[in-house]
Design a protein that fits this description.
This protein has about 475 residues and is of the alpha+beta class. The protein is built from 21 helices and ten strands. Helix 4 crosses helix 7. It binds manganese (II) ion.
C-alpha cells in the first residue's frame, strides 16, 4: 500500500524538507479527521486524499496544493471549519480547500439553468486561485480510477460529467496527461464493451506493427545522427477514446486509423525543431497540406509543436511531432508545468507564458459573465469557449444537447432516442419548420416532429 513515507520520498526529489514536513502534517491532520471513515473498497478514507496528493506530486505541484489535496474532503465530510484550517495551515491552504469543497458540491445536471449557475460557481472558484481546479482534477481522476463497484447508472452519470466538464477543462488548461486518462476511464465506464473491444484490437495491431514501427524509428534516428542533430525519436500511441471518436465521428474503419504510424521527436531548442523538420522531409516526402507550425502560432491552451505527415516506406502515412523538452512538458502538464519549473528554481518563459494564458482565460470568463445578460447567455459563451467544435441545441423544454459541428436535426433526434430518430419526419428550428437536413447552430431551439412509420424519408429506405 502507498504510504505517506512513499510520498515524502517522492517529494524529496523537488521540495525542500521544511515543505515536505508541512505536507506530512496535513496528512496526519486528515488521517485524524477522517478517522473511522472508509472508502467503498473498505480502505481507510485517508488513502484517497493521499492518492490525490500523489497525482499532484507526479506533476511536481507546490506544497500548498499537496496540503490542500490532503485536506480537500475535510470540510465537506468531517465538519472541520475553514477557520480551523486557516489557523493550522495558513490562509492560502484554507482558501484552496474551501474552493475545492465548493466545486465538490456542484453537480452538473441536465437542466440548463442549474448548469449555468454551476458553471458560474466553478469559474468563480477557479478565478480565486487556478490551483483549485488542478486539485479538483486530481480528485476526480482518483475517483474515476476507483469507480469500481458503483451501480452502473451512477457510474455512467459520473463518467458523463467527467467527460463533458472535467476532461474538457483539463484540455483547456493543457493538462493532457489527466485529460487523456479521464477520457479513457469515462469511455470505459460508459461503453465497457466497446472499450474492451478496441483495447483488444489495439493490442493485436500493436503486435503486428512492432517491426515496422522499429524500422521507421531507426531510420528517423539515423538521419538525425547523420545530420548531427540532437533529438530522440519515440513512438506514439493513440488513446482508446481518440480511436473510438475517429471511428465514430469520421466513420473510419479501425484498420485505417491504426494504419497511421505516430512518432515524436524531442530536442533541445526551437532552432533544432526546424532543422529536424527539414531532415525528416528530406528522408520521407511530406504529405502536402498537413504541415502545422504550432511553435510560431501556439494553440489557445499554450500547446506548441511542429506537426507533419510523411509518406513512409511503401506509402504508409507517418505522423511526426517535433518539439523541445519544455514544449513536451507543456504538452503533458499544461498550466501545471508552471509549478514544475518553479520547483526547479528556473522560471522558463514558456511555462510562465502558459500560466499567464490560463489566467487570461479565467479573466475572460469573468468578463463574459459581467457582460452576459443572464445565466443562459453566459453558459453559451463559456461553452463556445471551452468546446469550440460543438454546437449546443436547446430542446423545447430548455435542456441543452451537445452535438458535433455540422450535426443536423436527424442527428439530434437520434441523440435524444433511437425511436425518435426512427420516427422523425420534420422539425422546427426556433419554431419555424425546417428541413431535417439543415445544419444546426449553437443556441437554436429544436423541436422534432415524429410520426409512427418507417423513419426519416430517404432514398432506399423503403424496405
Ligand atoms: Mn475527494
Amino acid at each position: 500500500m502507498f504510504t505517506i513515507d512513499d510520498l515524502a520520498d517522492r517529494l524529496g526529489g523537488y521540495l525542500p524538507s521544511e515543505e515536505i514536513q508541512q505536507v506530512r502534517r496535513a496528512f496526519y491532520y486528515a488521517e485524524q479527521a477522517h478517522d473511522g471513515q472508509t472508502r467503498r473498497s473498505g480502505e481507510p478514507y485517508v488513502t484517497h486524499p493521499l492518492a490525490v496528493a500523489n497525482i499532484l506530486a507526479n506533476m511536481h505541484m507546490d506544497h500548498q496544493s499537496l496540503m490542500a489535496a490532503m485536506l480537500h474532503d475535510v470540510i465537506e465530510d468531517t465538519g472541520v471549519t475553514k477557520d480551523a484550517l486557516a489557523s493550522q495551515f495558513g490562509e492560502a491552504v484554507a482558501e484552496l480547500v474551501d474552493g475545492v469543497s465548493k466545486l465538490t458540491q456542484i453537480t452538473f445536471e441536465d437542466k440548463a439553468v442549474a448548469q449555468a449557475e454551476n458553471f458560474q460557481k466553478m469559474v468563480m472558484a477557479m478565478s480565486q486561485d487556478i490551483r483549485v481546479i488542478i486539485v479538483k482534477l486530481a480528485d476526480r481522476l482518483h475517483n474515476m480510477r476507483t469507480l469500481g463497484a458503483l451501480r452502473p447508472d451512477k457510474k455512467r452519470r459520473i463518467a458523463r460529467e467527467t467527460l463533458e466538464i472535467y476532461a474538457r477543462i483539463a484540455g483547456r488548461l493543457g493538462i493532457n496527461t489527466i485529460r487523456v486518462e479521464l477520457e479513457d476511464l469515462s469511455f470505459q465506464a460508459i461503453h465497457p464493451m466497446r472499450a474492451e473491444r478496441i483495447k483488444r484490437a489495439v493490442a493485436r495491431a500493436r503486435g503486428n506493427r512492432r517491426t515496422t514501427m522499429r524500422q521507421i524509428q531507426t531510420s528517423l534516428q539515423r538521419r538525425l545522427d547523420e545530420d548531427d542533430l540532437t533529438g530522440s525519436v519515440v513512438g506514439r500511441q493513440k488513446h482508446l477514446l481518440s480511436i473510438y471518436r475517429k471511428m465514430h465521428d469520421q466513420r473510419k474503419p479501425f484498420a485505417e486509423i491504426m494504419d497511421v504510424f505516430g512518432f515524436r521527436i524531442i530536442t533541445d531548442d526551437v532552432d533544432n525543431c526546424y532543422r529536424i523538420l527539414g531532415a525528416v522531409h528530406n528522408l520521407y516526402k511530406p504529405v502536402p497540406g498537413r504541415f502545422k507550425d504550432y511553435i510560431a502560432i501556439p494553440k489557445a491552451n499554450g500547446y506548441q509543436s511542429l506537426h507533419t505527415t510523411l509518406f513512409g516506406p511503401s506509402g504508409m502515412p507517418i505522423e511526426v511531432q517535433i518539439r523541445t523538452r519544455e514544449m513536451e512538458a507543456m504538452a503533458n502538464n499544461g498550466i501545471a508545468a508552471h509549478w514544475l519549473y518553479k520547483a526547479g528554481q528556473t522560471e522558463r518563459p514558456i511555462a510562465v507564458g502558459s500560466h499567464a494564458r490560463a489566467r487570461e482565460w479565467v479573466r475572460g470568463l469573468l468578463e463574459m459573465q459581467r457582460h452576459a445578460g443572464d445565466s443562459l447567455e453566459f453558459i453559451e459563451h463559456v461553452k463556445n469557449d471551452l468546446f469550440p467544435d460543438d454546437v449546443y441545441i436547446f430542446t423545447p423544454k430548455g435542456d441543452i444537447m451537445e452535438l458535433p459541428q455540422g450535426a443536423t436535426a436527424v442527428d439530434f433526434a437520434y441523440t435524444v432516442h433511437t425511436d425518435i430518430g426512427n420516427s422523425c419526419i420534420a422539425c422546427r428550428i426556433d419554431r419555424h419548420l425546417a428541413p431535417l437536413s439543415t445544419p444546426l447552430e449553437s443556441g437554436q431551439t429544436l423541436e422534432i416532429i415524429t410520426a409512427p412509420g418507417p423513419g426519416p424519408i430517404s432514398p432506399g429506405s423503403t424496405s
